[in-house]
Write a structure and sequence with these properties.
heterodimer; A: 147 residues; alpha+beta; Jelly Rolls; 5-stranded antiparallel beta sheet; 4-stranded antiparallel beta sheet; 42% strand; globular; B: 307 residues; mainly alpha; two-stranded antiparallel ribbon; 13 helices; 64% helix
Chain lengths: 147, 307
């Protein structure tokens, strides 16, 4: 009985500590590694990051404005395979795919007119066995500057 | 000694601990499908539902940060008018979660705006006001005394100041994300967005309406409004968010009167600069009457936020 209570106690403490530790690592990764990719653009200050596993997808919707230059940086932690991302307009046209650019982490662009765009992200799956699939932090960051 | 005696127990219960951690991790990961999963009647589970679950993905809705909003207003040719900003003397009045959250966004927008126009003392005052809001919300270490000192030391270095503002906002948004407080994060962003819209609408010279770049920027916010609504709807179980959402729906009714058409986007890559230009032409029509209606509604929402 004593061992059971001890086990439940440990389980409760660590169950809460483990995910917050993963999130904290994600924040550190975004701040220390991915943000560097934005230079010389100014980071907008928004934070978008999550733990993703091989094969998992994410989407981000954002309005980009005319007369600004933007840099998108999408970074995955070292454990993860390449990350494929596409920039898609409201008519579902793919405007850019980093697959055509050796899965580059960054893309620089400007717009003639303001647009709401979707960034679609997929962590490539390299392991056939799901048990071996790697998980890690993926950060999506935006930098901007006046044109 | 106590740590040593616990160590074998940790290993003994490790599989259960990891499993529990995984379960909690799924919860805090924030996939946007749990509501769907919870309401599914298991007797009617069909292949479509499994497909929905298998296609579950993390969705982010990104609004312009207060820093980006302020830069957009400045780049449209706006002038600095201190009277339009929320006085820092109001800061002690904000004691509720909602007022602190929206005013964290508002003060960060004011801070960015003042900094972009080299208003050094105002910048320091607004950083202190933003710190007060962040502290009230329990956002630890987003803005500390070192931040204020760095700001004071770099009063003549605008790039460094912009970097400090960007960093403090990221500290706040990442703290809220990792502590599973998306409703607060949404209200902070909407506060900053409304403040930007308020400053822009107030700065428009109504006698020079045609071809006014600031008016174009305001029309552009029709695009971000969809994202504002999605962001708030995701958190509408929070009563404060629900109350803001009602106002935003009314704002949408006015924005819906503005007609915007855009041609197909053609990407053009420039090898020399390594920059792609997304070429398109947008046409919009905003009459002075609809602008006045929009301006009044924005002012009413903003007044409610800062009172």
């Amino acid at each position: 009985m004593k061992k059971l209570i001890q086990g439940i106690f440990l389980l409760s403490i660590l169950a809460f500590l483990l995910p917050s530790s993963a999130s904290a690592q994600c924040k550190g990764f975004a701040k220390k590694i991915c943000k560097m990719e934005l230079s010389p653009y100014l980071h907008d200050g928004n934070y978008h990051a999550a733990i993703l596993t091989e094969g998992e997808e994410a989407e981000l919707y954002k309005t980009f404005y005319s007369d600004q230059e933007y840099r998108i940086a999408i970074c995955g932690s070292d454990a993860l395979p390449e990350i494929h991302f596409e920039v898609i307009d409201a008519n579902k046209n793919v405007l850019y795919s980093n697959k055509d650019n050796n899965y580059a982490r960054i893309w620089d662009f400007r717009l003639d007119s303001s647009q709401q765009l979707k960034i679609a992200i997929k962590v490539l799956a390299v392991h056939d066995n799901p048990v071996e699939a790697e998980s890690g932090c993926v950060a999506i960051m935006f930098g901007f500057r006046e044109k | 000694m106590k740590l040593l005696s616990l160590k074998p127990a940790i290993f003994k219960y490790l599989p259960a601990i990891l499993f529990a951690g995984y379960l909690v991790g799924c919860k805090s990961g924030g996939n946007k499908t749990p509501e769907t999963e919870v309401t599914v009647d298991m007797t009617e589970v069909n292949q479509d539902i499994f497909e929905d679950i298998s296609e579950a993905k993390k969705i982010f809705y990104s609004l312009p940060s207060p820093l980006e909003t302020a830069l957009l207003i400045k780049s449209a040719g706006a002038t600095y008018d201190a009277a339009l900003l929320n006085p820092v003397e109001n800061a002690p009045n904000y004691n509720t979660k909602k007022s602190q959250a929206v005013n964290l966004g508002i003060y960060t927008c004011n801070l960015s705006f003042a900094s972009l126009y080299d208003q050094t003392q105002a910048s320091i005052n607004y950083m202190n006001a933003a710190k007060r809001m962040a502290d009230g919300l329990g956002i630890l270490d987003a803005i500390d005394n070192t931040t204020i000192e760095r700001l004071e030391e770099n009063v003549n270095n605008r790039d460094e100041i912009m970097d400090i503002i960007s960093e403090t906002f990221m500290n706040s948004s990442s703290f809220l994300a990792e502590n599973d407080r998306p409703a607060i994060a949404a209200m902070v962003l909407v506060g900053g967005w409304i403040e930007g819209l308020y400053i822009a609408t107030e700065l428009v010279n109504r006698s020079e309406f045609e071809g006014n770049k600031l008016v174009d920027r305001i029309v552009d916010q029709k695009l971000s409004l969809d994202i504002v609504i999605k962001l708030l709807e995701e958190n509408k179980q929070d009563a404060d968010v629900a109350s803001i959402l009602e106002d935003i729906y009314e704002l949408k009714e006015i924005f819906d009167k503005i007609k915007v058409t855009t041609s197909e986007i053609q990407p053009e890559y420039d090898e020399e600069s390594n920059v792609t230009t997304l070429k398109s032409v947008t046409q919009s029509s905003l009459s002075p009457e609809i602008f006045a209606e929009l301006s009044d509604k924005v002012k009413a929402i903003r007044t409610e936020f800062v009172l």
